[in-house]
Amino acid sequence: MNLFYLAISSFLLGFASAWLAALLQLPLSHAMARASRVRVSSRFWFAWGMLPPVWGASVALFVVAFGVFSGMGWLDDHCPMHPGHPHLCLSHILESPPGGVPFWTLLGLAWLGAIRGCWRTTGLLVATRRWVAGATAAIAAGRQVFRVAGSIPFAFTAGLWSPRIYWTRRAMELLRGEERQIVLIHEGEHQRRRDPLRVLLLEWRRAWLPGGQQVLRQWERQAEIECDRACIRKGFDPSKVASTILKLQKAVAGRQRPNLSLAYARHDLSGLRLRIEALFEQPKRSLGMAPVCFLLFLTLTLLVSRVGQAHHLLETALGWLR
To answer: In angstroms, rounded to a whole number, what is the distance separating the alpha carbons of residues 156 and 255?
Structure first.
């Protein structure tokens, strides 16, 4: 029973910490999305999007570790110094166990949120795998490409650990010569970066945390710009790359994205304008993952260095829910 109460308390506190971090991100996400002087890379947006879940998981792990280690006597046990509220120590958690209507209500909502996130991403993953099942392999422009059924001229990358490039028969018929090469180089860049795994994680985050839609949209826009730039680095003329993008975008206008596929599936006029403009600009240094990693390191250092105060603060937060 001690472990049960410690587990559900750590889950609730971790979930609440992730939500609080996501709410604090909202105004900063809006400001960065509107910023024009600083180019924010897709690596930054991915790390920024995953920061709340990682922070929430860190808080939950901290609660469990402190509860176990203090109960074993490996850490100072300050529970007797703070009577009257729930304790997160295995030795004392049953003396004043967490509970109350707000506690159980929030715990239920947290579980529903977690289930919703897993259900949504699992559904997208299953839909993608069903669609690519039975795809036939071929060699096009020196790359292995898998052909799937479909009347939409559509190219995408799918697969979490070993991504593959797919396109429909209609895409093969629509694209000619250099256009095929441009599309396959673009998708090859998604493949190299393992972008399907990243978009799956961001979709999972979007399903249960606020602000996820904006983060996912900004990540997709920057990922597309960076994969378009790979075509420029291979020596293709920006005008040819732009015309290929517009040709496919026109063909998929108004279509819903059926799965976790990337690239030309989403009809995003603002993002399309940014993609075309980026083709004719000089490459700029962009903000990477370093600021997000530093922020996470700083907060985790603060949590560990103030371990007693942080633990008591979390216990106090449980007391508010009684």
So the answer is: 14
Instruction: Kindly tell me the number of DSSP H helices and DSSP E strands found in the chain.
Output: 11, 6
Closest residue by Cα to residue 202 from 227, 219, 189: 219
Alpha helices in 72-159 (DSSP H): 101-132
The amino acid present at 113, given as its one-letter code, is: G
pTM, full prediction: 0.89
Those residues whose C-beta lies under 8 Å from the C-beta of residue 49, and which sit 6 or more positions away, are: 201, 202, 205, 212, 215, 216, 219
Beta bridge partners of 157: 165
Integer Cα distance of 159 and 194 in angstroms = 8
Give the 3-state secondary structure of 101-114: HHHHHHHHHHHHHH
> Can you name the residues that pair with 165 across neighbouring β-strands?
157
pLDDT class of 142 with cuts at 50, 70, 90: confident
Query: What is the Cα–Cα distance from 1 to 156, expressed in whole angstroms?
Result: 49
Q: Which long-range contacts (CB under 8 A, 24 or more apart) does 6-10 make?
A: 6/63, 6/64, 6/67, 6/68, 6/88, 6/90, 6/93, 7/64, 8/98, 8/107, 9/63, 9/86, 9/88, 9/93, 9/98, 9/318, 10/59, 10/60, 10/61, 10/63, 10/64, 10/67, 10/88
Total Cβ atoms within 10 A of residue 24: 11
Over the stretch 180-218, which tens digit does the pLDDT of each residue have?
999 999 999 999 999 999 999 999 999 999 999 999 989
Dist CA 158 CA 141 (whole Å): 19
